[in-house]
Amino acid sequence: MQTDPIADFLTILRNASRSSKAEVKVPYSRMKSAIAHILKKQGYLAEVEMITGEKKTARPHLHIKMRGTGKTRAITSIRRVSTPGLRRYVGADEIPNVLNGMGISILSTSQGIMAGHEAKQRRLGGELLLETY
Question: For residues 105 and 114, is the Cβ–Cβ distance under 8 A?
């Protein structure tokens, strides 16, 4: 039983980036898919694709192609901020500026999961899920 599947997902991405893996497979969930698509849109991942199993018992998964290898990797650091044991909520004015604008934060808002700069523009606060650069 997983207690924090989002943290496990981020660990898979962090390990793949550090070991210069070209692609990874992770179990599918809507939240993981939304986070992966935001990371792709911001340029941290090359490609995100949902693969459904051919058999009825096979579970869907995300096939993610990493961007950059070695010293040119796109994800240098990715960190879970809000955990199941300690949730962290921020208002629109409190959204952190990661690495002076070089990184991004991802929030879960009432209008869905979005990047921190987009939530600031829309004047939305929410749960601060992760920070990456």
Answer: no
